[in-house]
Request: fold
Amino acid sequence: MAFLAFILGLIVTVKALDIRLTDLTLLPLLAAIFLTQPLLVLFSSLEFKLCGAVTHVDIDLRDAIYVSSSASLANILPLPAGLLVRGGYLVDRGAKLGFAGKILFLAGLMWMTVAIAVSGAVITSLPGHLFIFILGLGLTVGVMAIISKLGSLKLALGFLIVRVFLVVILTVQLKLCFEIFSQFVTLRGSAVYVVSSLAGAVVSIVPAGLGLTEAFGSFLAKLDGASAAMAYLVLSLNRVIGIFVTGVFFFLFAKLKPSCLTSQA
Reply:
């Protein structure tokens, strides 16, 4: 049902915008596929390595990329499968179930708190945006304090740095997605839609927030005075690029036989 709603929204959007193949620009598409999306996969893997460090599990980068890619693809299922994949790996390597679940929850929570701060900073038309920005910062510091208690301040700072890089890279990628359709926006303009991923993250029972992220992005576009239809189309393209590149990483690293596969064999 989520997939059908997503496709229906995509068809309506393309017709409304009267998009033609001649309107598309190839260079930003290649940049998203070969530069920004691989960087997103890499930094997501580094964040998983940090989760391992807190739970005293040493994760090889090859394993981290394979497991993170697996988890991202598993989120297509209508359940929090990504969390189960990451948690299953940590528990299989000796981490306690409750502790592993706690640190994975905190990593996801930091994404939400950073997203709240970003929304307050860039969506200036949002009522009380300054308060939202300060609230997001305060919540982020609170999450860092808990991670510091469970691990160390160094690890907590590591989570924050990785998350900030992920936000910056995703902002650049969304800007590239706009440019594919010959729409040029500022980095602040594209950062508005980073927040839309929050909707998909919160409602994990919907496959990867399918449709919710795009719909929320359209709502944010209206708040920012931009085209809701174009926002839906750009976020849809961003999702397709993400699934495609992550799938390539998954199959590539499965061929390389990560230690998690070797040990299971």
